[in-house]
């Protein structure tokens, strides 16, 4: 079965490191879905505006491998315990397909590459190819009582501190998405080295931070 | 991007007509997931037993077309109103990929083609190719308050009556899955012809029924 990308997303996440591990955790995380020219048809979205959330079926395009491994080490478990690949949402899977539910903010039909769908709560790296979009149907899809093995809760949020006015000149929206993203601590859980500086690219800014005693210290933010 | 089936499901639904339009509506609907030989590795399922529900990403193998149409007519809307294909869960999509959350009943590691996963609540026709299995993670996937356009509620359940002891000799489990499936009224919503006999294949039985005044009358059930 051969699939084609119907769209790509532009997102606030310029690289894999820092991308939230599930969708919806960082509502500030924005995305813009741009259809491949063949699929730029407003009719294909008719009625979509009556749904608040969408499923994106996408390709883990930065995780494509030719072999497959039966187990993975989820960062959630400290990176040192193995679980089955089908018991995880790891990008390294036999078919590198991902699944995210995102909030539909608006549909811009006047965009030059439109219709363009504005999204919130994304957990996708910039440029991710989208292979399907489906409406979220709560009567079928929402199972709040489901038992969830090793991932029963959303990640804890750490407090975020900007050091030496590192946030100077940032817009409120950039500050919000940066803080919310770093607060959930992108580090692999097995790393807890207060001296280590981490970096990632969010909303066009190169962010550098350290973590000590469950406090995030953002050291710099270069646009 | 080329995908391969990692598994297939055997289900109680011998043909497309009669298959529930979403997963979970008919909990009695059973499935058995059999991996393709290359993927028959119990390690790939390690930890899966701690999750109550799974996502199946599958191919709508009976709905594959070479062209695509921007709109579809959901049976839910009486089959006479068009909505965008991306605002629907129709099988006729640019990439014929489906998404269902099913209940994990058990994993049979002693099955000759094992590990075999026993499922409940399926909405898949027998033989559906599976391209991915993911654990259901309620903190990310469960959004009971999401707004759901034209499909805000599960379908209404009609009352089911067996005519002339048509259920004679049926096992309790077969009777349960047949009743629960026909109760949600597989007919396209634009058909309401009390004289018409419908038929489909459930759990190995060829079922024939009529619908009058929101009552299902099962006329025959041939094993």
Automatic annotation (TrEMBL), chains A, B:
Q: What InterPro entries does the annotation carry? A: TrmO-like_N (IPR023370), TrmO_C (IPR041369), UPF0066_cons_site (IPR023368), YaeB-like (IPR040372), YaeB-like_sf (IPR036413), YaeB_N_sf (IPR036414)
- PROSITE patterns in the cross-refs: TSAA_1 (PS01318), TSAA_2 (PS51668)
Q: Where is the TsaA-like domain?
A: 3-145
Share an example GO biological-process annotation for this protein. methylation
Q: SUPFAM superfamilies of this UniProt entry? A: YaeB-like
Q: Which GO terms describe its molecular function?
A: methyltransferase activity
User: Is Ligase among this UniProt entry's keywords?
Assistant: no
| Keywords, ordered alphabetically | Methyltransferase, S-adenosyl-L-methionine, Transferase
- The superkingdom of the source organism is Bacteria
The family annotation for this protein states:
Belongs to the tRNA methyltransferase O family.
Name used for this protein in its record: tRNA (N6-threonylcarbamoyladenosine(37)-N6)-methyltransferase TrmO
**Organism the protein comes from:** Oceaniferula marina
């Amino acid at each position: 079965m051969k699939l084609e990308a119907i769209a790509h997303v532009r997102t606030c996440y310029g690289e894999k490191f820092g991308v939230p591990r599930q969708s919806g955790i960082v509502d500030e995380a924005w995305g813009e879905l741009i259809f491949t020219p063949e699929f730029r048809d407003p009719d294909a979205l008719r009625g979509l505006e009556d749904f608040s959330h969408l499923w994106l079926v996408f390709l883990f395009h930065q995780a494509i491998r030719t072999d497959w491994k039966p187990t993975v080490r989820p960062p959630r478990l400290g990176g040192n315990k193995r679980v089955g690949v089908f018991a995880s949402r790891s990008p390294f899977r036999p078919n590198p397909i991902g699944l995210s539910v995102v909030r539909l903010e608006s549909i811009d039909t006047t965009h030059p590459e439109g219709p363009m769908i504005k999204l919130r709560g994304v957990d996708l790296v910039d440029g991710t190819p989208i292979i399907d979009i489906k409406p979220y149907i709560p009567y079928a899809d929402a199972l709040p009582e489901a038992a969830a093995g090793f991932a029963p809760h959303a990640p804890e949020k750490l407090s975020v501190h900007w050091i030496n006015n590192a946030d100077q000149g940032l817009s409120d929206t950039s500050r919000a998405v940066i803080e919310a993203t770093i607060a959930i601590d992108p580090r692999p859980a097995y790393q807890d080295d207060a001296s280590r500086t981490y970096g990632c690219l969010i909303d066009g800014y190169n962010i550098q931070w350290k973590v000590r005693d469950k406090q995030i210290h953002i050291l710099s933010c270069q646009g």
